[in-house]
Specification:
There is one protein chain. The strands form 3 sheets. Strands 1-2-10-7-12-5 form a 6-stranded antiparallel beta sheet, with helices on one face. The chain has a 5-stranded antiparallel beta sheet with strand order 9-8-11-6-13, with no helix packed on it. Helices cover 13% and strands 38% of the residues. A hairpin with a 5-residue loop joins strand 1 and strand 2. The chain has a single domain (47-195), classed as Sandwich (Jelly Rolls), CATH 2.60.120. The protein has 4 helices and 13 strands. It is mainly beta. The chain has helices at 34-41, 168-171, 176-181, 188-195, and strands at residues 4-7, 13-17, 20-23, 26-29, 49-56, 60-66, 73-79, 81-88, 99-105, 110-114, 118-124, 128-135, 144-146.
Length: 203
């Protein structure tokens, strides 16, 4: 089975759409294929941890961002649908402060690769939504920062027909300006130095 793998407008982010085999029994697809992914992106993604979350409709998680040396994320929706957003939080990046959204649905079989240093958030669109994260390293809270997903300066176009439900920590997260002033955001040059193969747009 061959997946369609394409770079997104933010360097270091990729969309992977799996080919699906369907017959009278049901369907079969490969959410992740290391060989195909490495050939398309130049990134040898080794999975060290898998984490699964289930969210009710309107739950908004993130924006979470790891330091430059933190884990890459490979995200797919196993059940239901989400609006998944990648945000460039790398200070010095040509697209710093920009975001890109993709709707992930269990019937579309799409996934996103998110390089270290990029922010990630999603909003559950279905009554329940189950999201699977494959991580290149074990998750550590101490290596992760949060930026406010409703920051008006970011102006992410979340759906307007729901009132987002957030955790107390996500709601209290700093704005992009505050996080930059506090020097808690990753540096683009460091990300490129460590993970440059994932940035074909600026190679």
């Amino acid at each position: 089975m061959e997946s369609q793998i394409e770079p997104l407008p933010i360097a270091g982010a990729w969309k992977i759409t799996a080919e699906v085999f369907t017959d009278h029994r049901g369907s079969l697809h490969e959410p992740f294929h290391s060989g195909q992914f490495a050939e398309a992106t130049g990134v040898d993604l080794v999975i060290r941890q898998a984490t699964c979350s289930t969210s009710h409709r309107a739950v908004l998680r993130g924006i979470r961002v790891t330091e430059a040396s933190g884990p890459a994320k490979y995200v797919t929706c196993l059940q239901g649908s989400v609006l998944d957003v990648v945000v460039d939080l790398r200070v010095g990046s040509p697209t710093f402060g920009c975001w890109h959204a993709e709707r992930l649905h269990h019937l579309d079989r799409a996934a996103l690769y998110i390089a270290p240093g990029l922010g990630h958030a999603f909003l559950a669109l279905s009554e329940t939504a189950t999201v699977l994260y494959l991580l290149s390293q074990s998750h550590e809270d101490a290596h992760e920062q949060t930026v406010n997903s409703l920051d008006p300066d970011l102006a992410i176009a979340w759906p307007t027909d729901v009132t987002p439900l957030r955790s107390a920590s996500d709601a209290a997260a700093p704005s992009l300006f505050e996080a930059r002033q506090a020097r808690t955001l990753p540096i683009y040059a460091t990300c490129v130095s460590l993970h440059g193969k994932a940035f074909p747009q600026f190679a």
